[in-house]
Amino acid sequence: MREQHVLLLCLFVSYASIIKSSYLHEGDECKLEHKGNYSKFPEDFSFGVSTAAYQVEGAWNEDGKGPSIWDTYTHLHPERIADHSNGDEAAESYHRFAQDLVALKELKVNFYRFSISWPRVLPRADTRVQNQKAIDYYNMMIDKLLENNIEPMVTMFHYDMPEELTKFGGFTNNIVIKYFRYYADFLFKTFGDRVKKWITFNEPFDYCVPGYGNADFPPMIHAPGVADYLCLDNTLKAHASAYRLYKAKYSNYQKGKVGITISSRFYYTNNPDFGSEDIVDRAMQYSLGWLAHPIFGESGNYPFTVIEDITSNSMKEGLAWSRLRPLNLYWSKIVRGSGDFLGLNYYSSRFVHMAEPPGGEIPSWEHDSRLKYSVDKRWKRAKSDWLYCVPQGLEDILKWIRDNYNNIEVYITENGWSDEGELDDTDRIDYLKSHLQAVLNAINDGCNVTHYTHWSLIDNFEWNRGYTEKFGLYYLNVTSKNKERVAKNSASYYRSVIESRKLS
Ligand SMILES: *[C@@H]1O[C@H](CO)[C@@H](O)[C@H](O)[C@H]1NC(C)=O
Ligand SMILES: *[C@@H]1O[C@H](CO)[C@@H](O)[C@H](O)[C@H]1NC(C)=O
Ligand SMILES: *[C@@H]1O[C@H](CO)[C@@H](O)[C@H](O)[C@H]1NC(C)=O
């Protein structure tokens, strides 16, 4: 996982007295009340856990793997990682999947969401070189999972782009659409007989804005309001192309589902004035809606507000074109409806306000959106400075999706809490319990949410935060030779929920 827009966050004091705390009970910061008739999760509801290749696999240069932009970046810029670490070894899952499997079986999860490393299977990004040892590894994983009645859910891209592609602009060059389509074809052909749930991209905002906007992530391009938007645009088209390919070539006999994972917060307003609903909607269109609206909305295009703002700002800046080109008819047809489900990564929420005058660089996402954010002082905070426990936000974003996207099926593909890695992790249990309550409340209210995935199975490499923020249900003993996975208290809590299908 990785939260977007950390740098854009404008935290300021929120005046508790004027906040109508209808959804928050003072002192109960990480709790949520039960609502609705059913206290149990439906029989066919699925519980899982998640990891991502670069964060757990290690073996960064073994068995023919090509470098990814995260290998290059962490090696060239250790100073940018909180503890100067990298994913060279991480949890060594490439060699220790057997240990991961023990943990997965212990949890009794219904599915495991993991990602395939593109440069591990296709070291040169295209299909000329197909790395058989990597194919063997993922085949082994998939087969072992299925033998143990754990369904594989595969993310095709989770930040670790082949370094090869940066030679010609990475996500800013639309040739990436073609490269991704051939990569996807290779994955469907190689693993699709057994993998029935595919996620094309994980959190486009969170690699596009830091990667191509504010240079906080590889490939460290600083071109906000331009290159980050190109990255989102090419990601959207690459996703839709892979989806159409699956429908045309594989879905008849493989019968799987293909979706995309988008991260989003929900937004609240403490301004009772006329128009406050519009601010919440605006904030949603500038986050979840940017990519979800073209796929799951009616227009087959970016949200109207976003197109309009950016066109008008581009003109004001003296450009002869808009920095965000709306999709043309050809792309609109391909993109609209290109998802069997919406993958949602939810961690936290914010209060939102109009920024007068707009902040941020000109141009930038922050400046175009004219939004700024704050938190409620009573929200409990995790080790990560952006992560506050707001379970009501999960219930509310699920209802927002129900109402805006025709009740499309939702998989919650990530949700989790960071700390120092203690085994007695009461705060993680509170977070898990209250967010599962949010899911149950949403189901009781007719939301089409069918999967919940906790981030993460094990403590892992948390991008620029290195190993300083731990999200695992299992502790990773980094100092021991065998890198044991040790169950935290939250692991047994989660197992009890999965077994009983209710919250205790
Ligand atoms: C809960 O059950 C009651 C009684 O059967 C019914 O009237 C009500 O509509 C139900 N509420 C929901 C949210 O399903
Ligand atoms: C849930 O989503 C699936 C797939 O989009 C759809 O077939 C089904 O009708 C939806 N269920 C409800 C209750 O809307
Ligand atoms: C981690 O491994 C070291 C060395 O094997 C051991 O001394 C320590 O107790 C382990 N920590 C935990 C929490 O298991």
Automatic annotation (TrEMBL):
Annotated PROSITE patterns: GLYCOSYL_HYDROL_F1_2
Record keyword Hydrolase present: yes
Alphabetical keyword list: Glycosidase, Hydrolase, Signal
Recorded coiled-coil stretches: none
Signal sequence extent: 1-21
Keyword tRNA processing among record annotations: no
PANTHER family: GLYCOSYL HYDROLASE (PTHR10353), LP05116P (PTHR10353:SF36)
Similarity field: Belongs to the glycosyl hydrolase 1 family.
Protein name: Myrosinase 1
Organism expressing this protein natively: Bactrocera dorsalis
